[in-house]
Amino acid sequence: MTAKMELAPLRAWDDFCPGMDRFAKPEFGDLTKWNNRVISNLLYYQTNYFAVAVVVFLIVGFLNPLGMFLGGAVVALVFMGSVWAGENQATVKNFKRKNPTLFIIGVMAASYFLLSLCGGVMVFIFGITFPMLLILIHASLRLRNMKNRLENNIESVGLKKTPMGILMDLLDQQEEKVSKVRDFIEGKLKE
Fold this sequence. Notes:
It comes from Gasterosteus aculeatus aculeatus. It is a multi-pass membrane protein. The chain is mainly α. The protein folds into two domains: 96 residues, no CATH class; 47 residues, no CATH class. Helices cover 76% and strands 0% of the residues.
């Protein structure tokens, strides 16, 4: 059974940015736990993150439309090239799976280098990197709630597919969650 792609709902502002009691410093010593928090938040708040990124893109795009187009094109091409390399080169695929943050940093560094050759560095920093930084900070600090975990498990099992879920699949970040959910379900069925 293949799930059709659907957009995640826009989460309410008081859920997206509640009081400070729902934010906490990530556990830097436990990278797996931090990575799970970031991935869960990216999946759950993906439409909110997309809206934030679009607002920043529009502001920067209005100020420098040609630079924004060039920056977006370069980042998209570098990302597609890195995904292709990750699918066709075992060493890149292993690196991408074990070090997703370093992989994204590498994509951004390669994009930065290519844009510096074209003179589009400021557009890159403000139009592309800044929204990603805002999203990463929120996803790292926002504590998950029960609804967040339930939605992510539904997507992990394959009952629902969203754009962020597809992106996470391209970055090889869903496989561990799917196997954990399957193991949990199989364990409950055996009981």
